[in-house]
Amino acid sequence: MANITTIERARKAFWFVALWMAGVGGAMLLALPFKLLIKAGAAIH
């Protein structure tokens, strides 16, 4: 019984970390075009 709860806890922790990393990665991908636009704007001026 204790083994099952440990596995469940590890599985929940894994999903939390996986979803958090996916969220951070998605935010970075969304920010990338804006970062490039800012760099391009700074290069023009």
What's the helix-strand series? Answer: H
Shape: rod-shaped
The averaged pLDDT comes out at 89
This entry's quaternary arrangement is single chain
Number of helices: 1
Structure description:
- This is DUF2474 domain-containing protein.
- Keywords: Membrane, Transmembrane, Transmembrane helix.
- The chain crosses the membrane at residues 13-32.
- The longest helix has 43 residues, at 2-44.
- It is rod-shaped and about 65 Å long.
- It has one helix spanning 2-44.
- The N and C termini lie far apart (66 Å).
- It has 45 residues and is mostly helical.
- It has one helix and no strands.
Quick summary:
The protein is an all-alpha fold. It has one helix at residues 2-44. It is 96% helix and 0% strand.
List the helices and strands and how they pair.
Layout: H1 2-44
List keywords for this structure.
membrane; mainly alpha; transmembrane; transmembrane helix; 1 helix; rod-shaped; 45 residues; DUF2474 domain-containing protein
